[in-house]
Amino acid sequence: MNDETLFIEGGRVIDPSAGTDGVRTVVVRGGRIAEVSERVDKPRDARTLDARGRWVVPGFIDLHAHLREPGQEYKETVESGARAALAGGFTAVCSMPNTYPPNDNASVTELVLARAAAARMARVYPVGCISRALKGEELAEYGELKEAGCVALSDDGRPVMSSALMRRALEYARAFDLPVTVHEEDLALVGKGVMHEGKTSTRLGLLGAPAAAEEVMVLRDIALAELTGGRLHVAHLSCAGSVRAVREAKRRGLAVTAEVTPHHLALCDEDVARSGYDSCFKMNPPLRSTEDVRAVREALAEGTIDCVATDHAPHSLVEKEVEFDLAANGVVGLETAFAVCLTLVREGVLSERRLVEALTSAPARTFRLPGGTLARNAPADVAILDPVRSWRCEPERFQSKGRNSPWKGALLTGRCTQALVGGRIAYELTEGER
Amino acid sequence: MIGRHRHLIGLEDLSREEILLVLALATSMKEVLRRPLKKVPTLRGKAVVNLFFEASTRTRTSFETAAKILSADAVNWTASSSSVSKGETLLDTARNIEAMRPDLLVIRHPAGGAPRFIADRVGCSVVSAGDGAHEHPSQGLLDMYTLAEHFTRNSGGAKDGAPDFATLSGRTVTIVGDVTHSRVARSNLHGLLKLGARVRVCGPPTMIPPGIEALGASVYYHLRPAVEGADAVMMLRIQHERIGDPLLPGTREYSKIWGLNEKKVNEWLSPSCAILHPGPINRGVELSPEVADGPRSVILEQVENGVAVRMAILYLLAGAAPAEPAEGAARA
């Protein structure tokens, strides 16, 4: 479609899939990566993109975003969500199926894909439901979902409480080689809890949900993954107990993967107190203790947690500008993820290479998606990042319709300046934003 | 203003000096309360709205009485706890009331943090009358006032009852019951620690919230060691909806193990130990009737002191404001 040749020059190319880290020129031709090398012959009139002082990386891939369409277009649409993704350096996002109606059949999958194609923003990979209508009672039709374009299965937003259904889901999904992404919480243990149970919930007088509510479900599902041989992916893993469980499962060679969100890496339960009950600090799983934060950081660095995923969850003020107890769970994350994760690099928690890997090749591998690499002939999905650019997080300027960011007003460092999808410059930070 | 504060949301926010400021003023207010003609013009022309999202008789009446003695105009607004899906939101309710130009908003709400949420978004002063399991600051203050009165009396202090708040220092106060769900326990804990007292909490492990030690309490699962040597015991109400939550097997066992009856009081409590209860009492569950009405009980003094303490709070938050109407008042 796009046969023009583009030279991305002078940037530091970080491509963990190829072990590349250094100043290179990336040559894009016909929508694909043609070459990445230190010296290239360039025609005098060639189109170039000056990337000096920038990082040039494979476009980020988010395994976990809520694009809210169909049904809750006042919160987000596929178009606004896919635009927000690009603004954050994500050239591909997996859209969660808890829409209205839920994505448990091909017609919803097709609608999401059609909207994404019309938007011409980030690529959108739909995730289908584990259970019909997300009810946790019977299996959805995985064959139809896969054929329509779903890349994974999830009842995200709620756990599959029935162990028997979970067992059958992992088993049945094997026929279609689909990973099953699980939102882990034992609802009975959570009860009416609205934040992490610990000394901060005690101080604030808010009912707590213990970390064990997640851990027991992760342990159950690892046992079921072993029983069935299914591919288990733990969504938004948040606590030390779950880390131990996944580490052990990986050591034993089970097909278990995990993701962690930027907010669980950067914030803890005490931030709920510091914010003064701000509902932009309410999400599920909740912000955990500092010990849990330490554990998930370590796990991401060592690879027990495979990748970073945003759990981008836009809500309107109607759901958020209320009592903490009543506020909807979730925060937006696509446009702040890179800057927030970069703080971990500055703190010495992650190497730059591991950070890029956790946002590119690791998620690609986890869901077996194309992209996440600058290998020759790969689709030219590229993010150009300015790692030192500081910017004030002003949610009213987000591309997302969601304003529910815990970083509102914060000074962040690190920003995507351009994003290419299939060789096309699909997003460019405008001068006014600089 | 209470020191630096325009609102009273919790005792965690107040310094020792700010707490003492309210308590000291409550002594003068109690004198007013005990006059045959209990009315002073201090807050004439000030409007206080009691905005209650949760049933309450004692606290609401107490605030209302306090406002009326000070000549403020008090109105009650009882609302069902709102939610996103049904009815008006909390913010809309608060903004509507604010548009009626009150000087002070007294809020009780079942959600922790609700008074703070409102305080951040309205122009008038906000007083929490209890939010979820967070804090009940006026209750904490009236309990401290009552304790200081008791300790002053017992140490042969002023006969007129003017309490010496320094008597709280070094005392041991035991709070017994469902600490997890108790805003009274939290306010007392913060306040008492700031005035130098020691706080023990006691109850079944299912009713002791995690991390309460980090806030400064010592934890006891058995009543006897918790009350032995204590200078005061505060019994919390066991709410019936907690039974079978499953925090407790039943009230019978609770009463047997964590309830106070005459025998335990006589055998375990020191002779000068006072017994408090924030009310309403479940007679026969946490307190036997003989103990509730017995000589150690200061429960009715708590209720009286509640009015005095709330008068002090209203005076400090609504009275000290410099907002005097320019002309109208002068002509009148």
Q: What features would you describe in this structure?
A:
The complex is a heterodimer of chains A (434) and B (332). By secondary structure, chain A is an alpha/beta fold. Chain A has two domains: 5-56 and 378-433, Urease, subunit C, domain 1 (Roll); 59-367, TIM Barrel. Chain A has 15 helices and 18 strands. In chain A, β17 (411-421) and β18 form a beta hairpin. In chain A, α1 (78-87) packs across α2, α4 packs across α7 and α7 (212-228) packs parallel to α8 (240-251). Chain A is globular and about 65 Å long. In chain B, α1 (16-33) crosses α11 and α5 (137-154) crosses α11 (299-319). Chain B folds into two domains: 16-135 and 306-323, 3-Layer(aba) Sandwich (Rossmann fold); 137-303, Rossmann fold (3-Layer(aba) Sandwich). Chain B is α/β, with parallel strands linked by helices and 332 residues long. Mean pLDDT of chain B is 91; it is low at 321-332. In chain B, the strands form two sheets. Chain B has a five-stranded parallel β-sheet. In chain B, strands 2-1-3-4 form a four-stranded parallel β-sheet. Chain B has twelve helices and nine strands. The longest helix of chain B has 21 residues, at 299-319.
